[in-house]
Amino acid sequence: MDLPSPTEGRVVKVLVNVGDKLRAETPILEIEPLSILKTDLWNSPSPRVASGSPETGSSVFLVHGHNDALREMTARFMEKLGLEVVILSEKVNSGDTIIEKLERHSSVHFAVVLMTSDDVGAKKGATPEGLQSRARQNVILELGYFIAKIGRSRVCVLYEEDVELPSDYYGVAYVPIDSKGAWRFALAKEFKHRGLNVDLNKL
Prior knowledge:
The protein is of the alpha/beta class and 203 residues long. It is built from five helices and nine strands; from the N terminus they run E-E-H-E-H-E-H-E-E-E-H-E-E-H.
């Protein structure tokens, strides 16, 4: 039978077993409310990200590899703009696997992916001279995850020079990480364009 739910979100715990006899007031599920739903993003023609939510949002997931200095620099910059930054490594595990933890914290308005030179690789049989700089595997996986979940237009890649891009991502615009810091203004403009609540006067 179908039962109405008082809220939309993610089922995190089932409180009853098959065959249990229940009263009308017996709770059967524990639901984690979500501030943003995938269907809202796909069906919305404007930067509005969730039904009943404000038109502008403030939550940004920061995907990173092993470049801790750039991670901290980027996180502090986004916080300066008034954004809520979600960094997976700073969240408690709560007994989850990594993918479960990612799913639990991925209900955001935007994702920033730091594609930095953390690994090297090449096609099988290549010589050592053919090795190319690559981002960590978790960075590539999470890039694809957020493209699928919140849409490509709400994902921005900060790209370190000479790092190999995933072949399926060729042709998509990214923000190069330059030594003079121009990437900050470019990233802030991406936030503003997608409706995030940022103050460009704080740059």
